[in-house]
Design brief:
By secondary structure, the protein is mainly α. The protein is built from 10 helices and no strands. About 2% of the residues have low confidence.
Length: 257
């Protein structure tokens, strides 16, 4: 296996270990919903994970390789119209249905910012750049998106809801394709970081409204909408990503960003 890809995978394993072990410690013995986890305090494990990844990029000098560069042109940002509409809808619903408390809103904003930056840097930055050195463009895109989705299954350790974690993993794989498309089309990872952050921020602000947190549902029989709903919800992003990635297979890996 290509050495650069191996290093990227090892860095990813360390990052995920920091996040998962930290999340389990912060959650304690009782499972909690993700909305509750991100709205009750600033996650120390997310802070440590972010510092670790930033240190890795600085140590190896991977600023350009990971897409930490300006966008090619402001016009390229027009491709963000679809996720921007969804994000606007999330926040409008939060206002209409009842905003979370100010403290919860701040915690959600900080934690999702850490997630948005760190996950993009870990997956679309470090992992994707490593995969591009070993695989053809389509292979690098698929590998990165699938791994990004699969790791979300481990959320079951903190939520206790393994069915929900599997559904989230599938939805994350589909959403991950959009984040890669944004990176490739804009030439920068920063827009993907911002979209990822605001997407999660809007969803969790909505889920934490007025102090309400969905309870873990591990013992409940999952309904068809609880399984199919999240997939249908991210389907427009997935289809849009496929459209944005048209013609990428004809490029060389060096020309992706």
């Amino acid at each position: 296996m290509n050495g650069r890809l191996v290093i990227s995978l090892l860095i990813l394993v360390v990052y995920l270990s920091i996040i998962l072990i930290g999340a389990k410690i912060e959650a304690g013995s009782d499972p909690m919903s993700q909305a509750e986890g991100v709205s009750r305090q600033i996650s120390i494990s997310l802070v440590i994970g972010f510092v670790f990844l930033a240190g890795v990029v600085a140590f190896f000098g991977w600023r350009r390789e990971t897409g930490l560069t300006p966008v090619r042109s402001t016009k390229s940002l027009l491709i963000l119209w679809l996720p921007a509409l969804f994000i606007l809808g999330f926040f409008l619903l939060s206002v209409l249905l009842g905003m979370p408390t100010l403290q919860a809103f701040v915690f959600v904003g900080i934690n999702t910012l850490l997630v948005g930056i760190s996950e993009e840097l870990a997956f679309r930055g470090i992992l994707f750049s490593g995969a591009r050195t070993a695989l053809r463009p389509i292979g690098a895109i698929v590998l990165t998106s699938v791994i990004f989705g699969v790791v979300h299954i481990f959320n079951g350790f903190t939520t206790g809801n393994w069915v929900g974690a599997a559904v989230q993993a599938t939805a994350a794989t589909m959403s991950g394709l959009l984040f890669i498309a944004i990176l490739i089309r804009t030439g920068s990872i920063v827009p993907a970081m911002i979209v990822h952050w605001l997407w999660d921020f809007g969803i969790f602000a909505l889920g934490s409204r007025n102090g309400h947190h969905p309870a873990p549902v591990a013992a409940e029989e999952p309904g068809i909408m609880s399984v199919a709903g999240p997939i249908i919800f991210v389907l427009p992003n997935f289809l849009y990503a496929l459209w944005l990635l048209r013609g990428v297979g004809s490029k060389s890996s060096d020309d992706l960003i």
